Amino acid sequence: MNTTSNAADALEIIAFRLHQQEFCVKTTSIREIRGWAPVTPIPHSPYEVLGVMNLRGTVIPIVDLAVKLGMPAAQATERSAVVVTEVNGMTVGLLVDGVSDILTVAGNTLQPLPAATGPSAAFSDGIIAHDKSMICFLSLERMFGEDDPSSWGMAA
């Protein structure tokens, strides 16, 4: 990490695992992290929507983030986590294999994705090289940025 960089260009991120790969999002979009609990399925919802969960009196959709990213469906276990996010005015829970770390990294460590990564790169702001790993920095705003939330199976 570059210790001479301004605090303004530092990125506060939460890193998590999906299928042995590391991903991260800005901590400012995170409301809380919960352990896995069974969800109530909703008929005719999109494939990536596992169902809904009651979060202190508010019903929120739970999305299998692996499916949303084009990966095989996650198998929820007692080690899985639900990352509850606030994105574009909506609360959405994201099923991940586990939360790795909360980090502050220099903004200049965020590298653009190579052009050859294809259309799935639309949800990513780049790659962060940290220690001996590469962390894909996701943009929840683009991932859940539809003008009409019902188009991806969730009400605002």
Automatic annotation (TrEMBL):
The CheW-like domain, residue ranges: 10-149
Cited InterPro entries: CheW, CheW-like_dom_sf, CheW-lke_dom
Ranges in a coiled coil: none
A Pfam match: CheW
GO cellular component: cytosol
GO biological process terms held by the UniProt record: chemotaxis; signal transduction
PROSITE patterns according to UniProt: CHEW
Xref: SUPFAM superfamilies: CheW-like (SSF50341)
Designated name of the protein: Purine-binding chemotaxis protein CheW
Species for this entry: Rhizobium glycinendophyticum
Lineage of source species: Bacteria, Pseudomonadati, Pseudomonadota, Alphaproteobacteria, Hyphomicrobiales
